Structure formats: structure tokens, C-alpha cells
Description:
By secondary structure, this protein is α/β, with parallel strands linked by helices. It has one domain: Leucine Aminopeptidase, subunit E, domain 1 (3-Layer(aba) Sandwich), CATH 3.40.220. Helices cover 38% and strands 19% of the residues. The protein is built from five helices and six strands. Strands 1-6-5-2-4-3 form a six-stranded mixed sheet, with helices on both faces. A hairpin with a 2-residue loop joins β3 (59-66) and β4 (69-77). α3 packs parallel to α4 (122-136).
Amino acid sequence: MVAISLSTENLLEQNTDCYAYIVEKDFDTSVLYEATKSGCSNLIAIIEQRKFVGNLQETISVPFSHNGRIAYCIIVGTGDKSSKGINSTEKYRRALGQLIKEVRVCKSTSVAIALSVREETPFYCIEQAVITLQMAQYYFDDYMTEKKRKDNNLTQIVLVVDEKYKEDAERAITEGNIIAKAVNQARHWVDMHHRL
């Protein structure tokens, strides 16, 4: 399982390869500009050029120079509030799963995520994020002989939350890891050969 840690500092102050934002459809780009202007000042122009609006699982990755190294700013959309048959928690899970795929495409070892937390259910939101991120890491590779096909470069995820959610986040990370580990173990048993 990947190591998931918590931070209440600014997203771009984290020492990671990728910096991620989860956004709703037609999000306010000025908020994102303020958050990223010190590191990725051309992000808004790229978003506009690519016509990124934040549809469900729509992704944009922008490489930029950060503290003398190459990093990626990744933005994943959750769609709008009127998606039929998909509640907001499930849309958020899907966006997080898409984020992990994008981090792998970037061949990154770490990602910091600006976690959106609903005021009324911070523990639940963070716990679901942890479960989803850990489950997205599952990959059955027991019978693969080519070493490079077994590579999973991602080793660290930093969840960045507001200071007021710190206590809930610490508990949610602990409990989310337990649940995700159990689910991934069950998935592994199902994927094993039936005679073993």
C-alpha cells in the first residue's frame, strides 16, 4: 500500500512530483490561478486553450518547473451536480481514480492532493478519498514475469486539508487505510488461482 500522509500547508509547499486539484464542472479559474501562480503561472491559459471545463473524469496535466525540478499540475473534473444516477461521493471517487491513472502516466513517485471536504461530513469525505486512493493502487501481478510490468512508481500521497479538518483527517486516514487494505486483500484472494 502507498503511504498516505496529511498536511495543512499550501499544496505547492509539498515536496512531491505532482500537485493535484479536483474541480467541479465550470469551476472558477481565478481561485486555481491564485493557488498556482507562483509555480505554474500559465496554467489558466493552457486550460482555456484545451477547453477544459471539468467534466466527469476529464483530466489535464501541465508540466512546470518547481523548485528547480520538473513537476506536474494535474486537474481532474467531477462533472456537474446534475449527473443522473451518480452521487457526488461517487463522482469524487471516480475523479480520484482517474487522478491515480494520470500520476502513473507521468511516471511520478508522489502526489499532493488539495482535498475538497464538505463541511458537514469531513471525516466521511477524507475516509472515502483514502479508500479510493488505496484501492486504485491495487494491481494483481503475482504471475507476471517481466519486472517492468510490475512497476508501481507511486509511493507517497499527501492529502492537503484545511487546519480545521486535521483531527478528522488523521482518524479518516487510519480507518480508510484499514478498510482499503481489507478490500485489496479480498481482491487479491479472488484473483488467485482457485487451487492455491
